[in-house]
Amino acid sequence: MTRDEANGLLDAYVDGELDAAKGLELERYLESNPVARAACERLRNLSAAIRDQAAYHEAPAELAARLRASVPVAPETTLVAARRRWLMPAVALAAVAIVACAVAIGLLRPDGEERLAQEVLASHVRATLGNRLFDVASSDQHTVKPWMSSRLRFSPPVTDLSADGFELRGGRLDYVGGQNVAALVYQRRQHVIDAFVWPSQDERAAQALSRDGFNIERFARGGMTFWLVSDLNRKELEDFARLLAERSAL
Amino acid sequence: MGAVSERKHRFEQRVLPHLGAAYNLARWLTRNDHDAQDVVQEAVLRAYRFFEGLRGEPRPWLLAIVRNSCWTWLQVNRPAELAGFDDHALEPRAAEEPGPEALAMRQFDRRLLNEALAALPAQFREALILRELEDLSYKDISRITDAPLGTVMSRLARGRRLLAESLRAVSNASAARVHK
After folding, report:
1. Are B76 and B30 contacting, i.e. CB atoms less than 8 angstroms apart?
2. Beta carbons of B12 and A71 less than 8 Å apart
3. Under 8 Å between Cβ of A212 and A118
């Protein structure tokens, strides 16, 4: 690999976007080339600095309110929609037929798992949209935990992970799967993570899902089921799940 | 009526959660709050009209619409900024050439970093915002900015070089002042 070639690939490498073969080739080049290695390190630092320090501009609350108010009065019918309207009953019928077949041959299982996923997702979306993220706002686990325990029939594990870059923001009470649950709210950079917790005898393996652009993680630890929902990227949410599982086991 | 409220409900659930990302992108591209709000409002209403066209993930889909609105706004209101828009006009130094102090630190001055980022030409700025703040893949960025993957890659690379250079320049300037 030539110097120019390696230079051209550094950013994609740092971004984790190189295919495996090119990545290996570049890593071999970096091993033998300390100058390029230093350049790579500088790129990582710069990328991390932008992530940590560039302003994430919060949408003003009045913008969200204004949009929610104005969406229903937006023109309902575009030309395309009007032209296609006659198609809709046919499309709907076809869809019903396809779903019926899929269920019949066992492709789709609208099971409890999917229902729970939809419920925690809906709760997360409602909370982030409506700005009712927490009933108790505190970054202190010794405030959040007793608050939760006194209002629920169980005491959820509340873990401080701020040293690992996941800041506790607070918690709220929620209702999922027909029971009262604890929703602990964490934050990573600008991303809100909801951790739903309730007692269960769940012994299934952990699972990762994704719905509508949100990542979801489910796992069980110490007699509790955890569902995590966030628009954080998969890798960091997995890190969070792992940390939470480790610390909650104590 | 049922169809309308059902559609609105789905829109609120799938698209509106990404309003924050939409505003942040518009704020970085227009560089002021007032215009960012206007652009986002117009873009979201447009998104609602074309909601049937949504396939796959809603966030990149919404961001593509917002991005288009931003560029239209820039063309009308900031034509000078886009004049001479050319990815190849700026040939920064190669990554391997370290500056004297090599920007080794990870903690830059927050204000300087934000100013330097805001001063980047729009196509590099948007690539960096989408990558570093929205954590989007090259493929998504390519869709949103309507540019080939190779262009996304080189815009990110150039954007980072330009940013590093301008940070290096200001930190050199302030070091020079201190030594006087």
Report:
1. no
2. yes
3. no
Tell me, yes or no, if B172 comes closer than 8 A to chain A by beta carbon: no
The mean per-residue pLDDT over the stretch A78-93 comes to 49
Q: Write the CB contacts of A239 (distance below 8 Å, at least 6 apart in sequence).
A: A164
Q: Where is A199: in which H helix or E strand? A: strand A191-199
Chain A partners within 8 Å of B13 (Cβ) = 122, 125, 212
Q: Which residue has the tokens 């518009």?
A: B26
Would you call B108 and A71 a contact, using CB atoms and an 8 Å cutoff? no
Comparing CA positions, the residue from B21, B17, B60, B10 lying closest to residue A125 is B17
Give 3-state DSSP helix, strand, coil % of chain B, rounded to 5: 75, 0, 25
Asked whether the beta carbons of A195 and A183 are under 8 A apart, the reply is: yes
Predicted confidence (pLDDT) per residue in A119-172, tens digit = 999 899 888 887 678 888 888 888 899 889 888 888 899 998 999 999 999 999
Query: How does B66-76 read in b/e, with b if 16+ C-beta sit within 10 Å?
Result: bbbbbbebbee
pTM of the model: 0.60
Q: Residue A49: which of B107, B122, B30, B103 has the closest Cα? A: B107
CB spacing of A58 vs B108 below 8 angstroms = no
CA of B22: how far to CAs of A181, B40, B64, B122, in Å? 31, 7, 9, 16
* pLDDT tier, A72 (very low <50, low <70, confident <90, very high otherwise): low
Is A46 close to B160, i.e. CB distance below 8 A? yes
ipTM associated with this complex:
0.87
Give residue-wise pLDDT tens across range A37-69.
999 999 999 999 999 899 999 999 889 888 887
Q: Are strands A179-188 and A167-176 parallel, antiparallel or unpaired?
A: antiparallel
User: Chain B within 8 Å of A36 (Cβ-Cβ)?
Assistant: yes
Residue B63 has pLDDT above 90, yes or no: yes
Tens of pLDDT, residues A188-242: 988 999 999 999 887 788 889 988 889 999 999 888 999 999 999 999 999 999 9
Distance from C-alpha of A24 to C-alpha of A146, rounded to nearest angstrom? 51
Is a pLDDT exceeding 90 seen at residue B91? no
User: In whole angstroms, what is the distance from residue A22 CA to residue A28 CA?
Assistant: 10
What is the C-alpha to C-alpha distance for residues A101 and A153, in angstroms, rounded to an integer? Answer: 43
CA distances from A22 to A29, A32, B112, B151 (A): 11, 16, 35, 18
Question: Residue A188 pairs with which residues in a beta bridge?
Answer: A191
